[in-house]
Amino acid sequence: MGDELTIRPLRAGDPAIIAAAMDAIGWNKPESQYVRYLAEQDAGERDILVATVDGRYVGYVTVRWVSPYFRTIPEIQDFNVLPSYRRRGIGSALMDAAEALVTTRYPVVGIGVGLYPDYGQAQRMYVRRGYLPDGRGLIYDGRQVPPMESIRNDDSATLMFTKELRAREDVSG
Fold first, then answer.
1. CA angle 10, 128, 126 (to 5 degrees)
2. pTM of this prediction?
3. CATH of the domain at 78
């Protein structure tokens, strides 16, 4: 075999496997989150793309079709690659697959990124891929932070980006 990357939709047996992998690296992502994702995928609200290498889980990304933040465009959310599998092109392959999926229905996609150093690689990746800040400034827990307001720099503090995936005039409708 040897490093065969596969990207596929989330399946019924995946929630326990993904939650265990996340727990093993100290990330609090319970199985119930992935069970909910599976229900949302079945309802057409979200698509979850799972990456495996030689059949072993290594990462995932989700596309939320109705973003509570962007409202009129989908949002790529909850993008994760296990640390031991980073810098191998898996994250880029997941993003390529998510963008290709969005392109089938929308010309633009949104994404948010955290602000502390753990998100540094993602921040650089999104800019390299052509994502641009949406111009609304700092967002905390889905709301715009007014000037001079203090917030906690945690996973809820984000900068939101958008990317035009295809020219708007190419959209059939």
1. 45
2. 0.89
3. 3.40.630.30
Segments forming the whole domain that contains residue 122 = 5-170
How many CB atoms sit inside 10 A of residue 9's CB?
12
Q: Are 86 and 45 in contact (CB under 8 A)?
A: no
Q: One-letter amino acid identity for 139?
A: I
pLDDT tens-place string over residues 1-56: 468 999 999 999 999 999 999 999 988 899 999 999 999 999 999 999 999 999 99
CA distance 66 to 74: 5
Contact status, residue 90 vs residue 57, Cβ threshold 8 Å: no
Distances (CA, A) of 169 to 33, 59, 163: 37, 34, 15
Residues in the chain: 173
Six-digit token string for 120: 């540094």
